[in-house]
Amino acid sequence: AGKMVKKVLPQFSSEGSPPFGAGPVVDGLRQERSLASTMEILREQGDLLQRALASHEVESTAMVAITAFDGKVDPCRSHANGTTCINETLLVSAGNYYKACRPLLAKFGFEDGIVGLARLNQSISCYGDRPEVMELLVMNMCRVLFGIGEQAPEEGMISQFVWLAVMASMVPLLGSFLSWLQHLALPPLERRLRSVPRTIAWVDLLLHQEVQALRSAAARRAAGTTRVVWLLGATDALEGRLAREGRFSDAAVFKDLDMRICLVGDGLKETWTNRGPIKVSAHAWDECLGGMPEPTVAICMNMGVGTLDEAVVETWLLRYAGFLGPGRCALVITCRCEAEAMGEAALLEVLGAKPIMRRDSETRHMRNLYSGMAGNPDADFDENGWFLAFAGSSLSAEELAKAGMDVPGTLARARRLVEERAAAEAAGSNGREGAEGVVGGDGPESRKSPAVFWGILDLKYDPDAAPQDRVKVLETGDGQSSKFSGYGAAIKETFTKENRLEETIRCAVLTENKKLTHDKIVECGYAHLRPKQHIFPKVYSEGLAAQVAASLRLGDCGTCVLKLCNRTRGAGVVPVPVGELDATLKGLLQPPGDMEAWLRDQPEDWAYRVNPGCFDEQSRHWWSNECPVFLAEELCLSAPTTRMCVETQEERSFDGTMRVGFSLHREMRDRLPEGWLDTPEGPVFVSDDPGSSAHGGAVGSGYGGSRASGVPQDDPGSSAHGGAVGSGYGGSRASGVPKAAPAPRPWDDDRPYMDLFRPGDVLLRLQWLGGYWKLPLQATDSEDLRGRIVSVAKQGTAPVPGAHLHDVYASLGDMVSLLFNTNANSLSHISLSRRYSEFPEFAAFVCSRLAASMRVRDRQRSQQILALARSSIGKLSGIQRELVLSYIERNAGIYEAMHSRWQTAEAGFRKALQAMPANATARYLLGMAHLEAGNLSVAVVSFREALLLDPDFKAPYANLGVAYLRQGDFRSAAEACRAGLLRHPATPQASYNLALARVALALAAPSAGEEGGAGVGAAAGAAELRAGALEALEASRETRAQAQLWSEEDEELLVLLRDDSRPLAWPRGVPLREGWKFCSWRP
Questions:
Q1: What is the DSSP string of 722-789?
Q2: Per-residue model confidence as pLDDT tens digits over 302-355
Q3: What is this structure's pTM?
Q4: 924: closest CA among 903, 906, 904, 899?
Q5: Burial of 917 (0-12, 13-18, 19+ CB in 10 A)
Q6: What angle, rounded to 10 degrees, do the helices at 581-589 and 615-623 form?
């Protein structure tokens, strides 16, 4: 046992690369934990294990293995929980160990959770060379393995052979689950990197005997004790980096062995030095034909072949066929999701591959516990998450070669197999649903999955980059307010078809603030997914450019991206080279001194004709933004996306931004079983009998009987139900015994180890909805820096290959679930104030934004938080304070406007402009106050000023159209609405107002020509206007968010416009000069 413990201890050593990603903290454990304290930990651990085992709260690893294997010795055999016997044994044993030792963490100052347990184990390992420590540790590990005096079971329960086999396997089982706990505790990136060598170790541990049995005696003698692993498709960015950092030593984590790892791929640079028993070498593909040592096993990791994408299959099919040929070694393939696993199994079945592992007579992948997500059952996408092993083929060499070269034919057969199996599985699922019924109703809406949020991530992606640089998340967004065009339309359709929103989480403060999003992602352990970012006051100074360049470590030729914290749609995004940084910051951060005079001097139609995205527009976005800070980020690029140019018929490359959609689904800890309802008086069993008069009766009354008899109804197959627990009612009619309340299930999942993966009380289960590329206006060879970097929907979209999408999903891990879990991440005004206490202006701004998000559901609380924010900046001074004050006063005015107190609201908007004259939103809201008061000419001025400062602001365009309609200036109304629709095509208010303006122009004097000028006959001009009015009116009906906006008179006008044979006349009841207002409070 002592030998076994010493084997396990080095896995928790702090030597070399820090296993928990925090070297100083690990070293601190060694210094702070005294020998006496370590001995106390071990004694306390022994007592906890003794009590837990005696009370049967946990079982020994031996008993767990016996239960899991159920008389068999095949580790890859399927378990009832859907996993394999070996995985079930390790996970349950790890869960038992964690459960028994968890009380130690708080008592001895370790953080609660898996990381705390791993650190505790590591602190013990610091004294692994002390005999007194080893003695206690060995005793504790014996308790974990064998329990308290457990004997061989009675004959007939399990064979003596199996018992001995289980006992003999205890040492590697202990090493496995302790090593796995350490793997689970690693930070996401570290865990993902170590997944490569540890997957090799795990495959060797599980399959070595089977693999050796497949080899000839001569091959075994030639190889001796050295394992030779060919790692196929290796890249210098990943496997080369691991070799340079010495991480392949983890391939011997379970056994002391000599191993030769041959990295096979393109572009590998052998720039490392081998130390220890693991030797790593780099090889080109042509060396597989000769010049390399004969492999024990060949492993291919995460190539995406299971997506059955033709380009990927074409690359790998012939290689797979070659490794399945006569006399070749075993082939192990890993993948990122179950869909890929099905595709790989189908493709290899077409090649006649013979599986080494079979589960229930099926060729099925096995879940890899040493994956990038440590085999997390909640992870649908996982680096090296699933694997399958093959050796040889049932096809002849000629048949195998033919199938390997016939990519279209082999691929078609594999796809048919996948479709047939999916159809069979769906038929079985539908049959089960039909037998069990649908809970909650029979309509299609009841069958949809309840979601608490759905949103998007915009990111940069390069599949050839190193893991830490492959995915960079730029921003998050709410799916309800995001736009999906082209290839992205399927994302919204998928969510609408399969999900419904229920009890939504409120996270607008998070999604709309890039700084807060960045900080939260870093706290979740995913700092590598974010570009380098630094925050600066929105005040220009001579040394500011140097500070920005130094913070991002920009060289003389470097480029950074300047951003506003709280703007979307690319507004305020300015990429800038270092050489132009000072001049750019000066233009962005120094608005005109006399704003009123500057506005008077601007052309009224500037917003209609400005080139979207130009620096003139971006500078106005910055001037008019109320946030007191700005962000400087490193420039991140995607791998080029090629697209055919329609004009030149040439392929051009674009640096796209990938948008992926997701939905989140809440699961709670300690939920009652189905049929029970939690109430303040206690759990109540709820009847699901549609014939009953009540579902469980009134809480506390104890009744829930039938309408005819009033007798409590029977629980089908058992006793009656309906009363509150403890009320004395709801018992069996025969015995009168109350129905006992069941113990709550920890989760909806019955597996006993789920707490290892779900540390909190709430889990947000992640469902990916798809992804697509958004392309910039300019190709990568353009000299327009912003035009080739910032993506816009106008240029178009492109599909993302399935293998790349799966790579992105796996790279993101559980970041999205952690980021939006508001139960674990408080977004209260107190927590936000503390978080940014060193930057009080920004803290006040974020708290004010929180208040704005609450103004509908909790107006009183919203006003209280606004008052606290105003008070927090009361003693401050400077431009930043004025920006935040303007935001606060503007929101105070909105509160009054929401109660139709427009006169009081107007005073708030004027205060906001007094603090910040460039506040475009306050000018727009002031225009709304004038519009409500009937001061049309003043409203027009305010709306135009808002657009001069923010030409991407949707609401002023539509409301300017309303003001012009009411003035009778139909040409100006049409011009304003048309300009707004060019930027925001799906704006029903602008479309409706444009339709009214065009109808009015068509009905105008015969001398009227086209709305844009003269020179065309009156009849032709009227016909064109009529057609344009019809198009706009149809668009307004299709895109309107509220059905009540559309009236019978509007429908009458639409019918009239469609019938060219009828003369155009204004229908009675349609207010010609009214229009649809766009009431946007803009948070």
A1: -SBTTSS-S--TTT-PPPPPPPPBSSSS--TTGGGT--SSEEEEEEEEEEEEE-BSS-TT-S-HHHHH
A2: 999 999 999 999 999 999 999 998 878 889 999 999 999 999 999 999 999 988
A3: 0.87
A4: 906
A5: buried
A6: 50
